[in-house]
Write a structure and sequence with these properties.
The structure is a homodimer.
Chain A: E1 3-7, H1 11-22, E2 26-31, H2 35-44, E3 48-50, E4 62-65, H3 69-77, E5 85-88, E6 105-110, E7 127-131, H4 134-145, E8 151-153, H5 156-186, H6 195-207, H7 223-232, H8 237-250
Parallel strand pairs in A: 1-2, 1-4, 2-3, 4-5, 5-6, 7-8
Antiparallel strand pairs in A: 6-7
Chain lengths: 251, 251
């Protein structure tokens, strides 16, 4: 049976461990810096745990490094497992950071925003795969297909492009929601009023291209509304600057 | 029976006419500038149509002006219906533009992004109501409740705030999708890869506050990733400017 060690106990590590367990893999070991983070995840997936990489269970089949980008190189330095498959899960880290860990290594990058608190359907999450050899790639694709229906082989440059697109489509849109929320809250209006609009905006781009469905004062070049809205933002120079720049670019 | 005249045949007019018809109202007349736009909508809701406001059917009960913001005043000038209820559907136009049309007037503003091509569930669309008198307000609330489960009385200032929040939450986020789409297309990657991420981002803000769920390099102050992504945008100064401004504000 394929036994997997997971290093990390954060958002991605948690979702991967849970879903690998559901897919029928044995989670051999969870390794995290603190017992407080390692233990609950280990218990959830019936695994052992340790806070010291020296106790790494080298009898496992796969080793998955799901820690923050800054920590990957540091973890990799402490792993030596011969020919066994070592994988990291980062979109923005080259594969070669793992080259001393094993002769077989690669990347399994699930392209999604994960929170421990929020369950999601992993089968719909695109997983981007890169392997140090065809054999490594084949094995990571196999592993990924147990988790998701959307598996793509992708090199570092492509992952970087995807990550950048994700910053615009996820991080920056969420920030737009935060601004909208603030504007409403200052005026004692509920964010709930916006939810149908937000949902519909996203519904549209499921089937139509975003450029095609762009609406609003900027695309209509409705200067009267734009000027009035700029005036409303007069006392919030940061928001006004964002409003002006995005409006200019849409026009 | 309540008979309604609808002036306009664009996105909002179309959705309102269809949904009022479904709710059991008789659409007495559709008035639009061209036969090409008036006729199909009139046929869809079994109404008569005209392209000349002089032919307005003044025997109707309600008169709904659902034309573009710039046209409302011009249309209002040509309507004189005594005490009958005249309504416009604009978020960003004061109610008083209708004050010479009738002694009873007001606003029915459905807060949503409408496209003729796309069916949506009107019952979930927040409708913001303002009336020139309590009687007018009561009548517009009655009309709105036939269409939606979410009806709020809201004055001009509140509508303007809501509209501004909508620009950030809908128009600007859609523009972020357009940028993401361009970045992927230039690199022969499909926008489909982003859809699960976009859906999840929106799912999160249905139950959690946007500030709480902000992710990405900016909120993590991950300068290595930010610098690399800025470098990727070097040849697109417009996008780089947007990236830098939003990143700075999130940090």
């Amino acid at each position: 049976m394929n036994r997997i060690v997971i290093i990390g106990a954060g958002n991605i590590a948690t979702h991967l461990a849970m879903n690998l367990k559901i897919a029928g893999f044995e989670i051999a070991q969870i390794i995290a810096r603190t017992e407080a983070s390692a233990k609950p995840l280990a218990e959830a997936v019936s695994a052992k745990y340790t806070c010291d990489l020296k106790n790494l269970d080298t009898t496992a089949t796969y080793f998955m490094i799901a820690v923050s980008d800054d920590e990957i190189a540091n973890v990799a330095k402490q792993i030596r497992v011969g020919e066994k498959l070592v994988i990291h899960t980062s979109g923005s880290t080259p594969m070669d950071v793992l080259k001393d860990c094993s002769t077989n290594y690669g990347v399994l990058y699930p392209f999604q925003t994960f929170s421990k608190k929020k369950v999601l359907n992993m089968r719909k999450v695109p997983i981007c795969v890169e392997g140090s050899s065809l054999e490594a790639q084949k094995n990571i694709v196999f592993l990924s297909r147990q988790l998701s229906d959307s598996v793509q082989v992708m090199n570092f440059e492509q992952r970087a492009v995807l990550h950048l697109a994700g910053v615009f489509a996820c991080n920056f849109t969420n920030y737009m929601y935060a601004i909208a929320n603030d504007i409403l809250a200052e005026n004692n209006l509920s964010f709930d009023l916006l939810k149908p609009l937000i949902t519909e905006t996203v519904d549209k781009v499921q089937s139509l291209s975003p450029r095609e469905v762009q609406t609003g004062p900027a695309i209509r070049k409705d200067m009267k509304t734009i000027e009035r809205q700029e005036k409303m933002l007069e006392k919030q120079p940061d928001l006004l600057e964002i409003y002006k720049l995005l409006t200019k670019n849409i026009m």
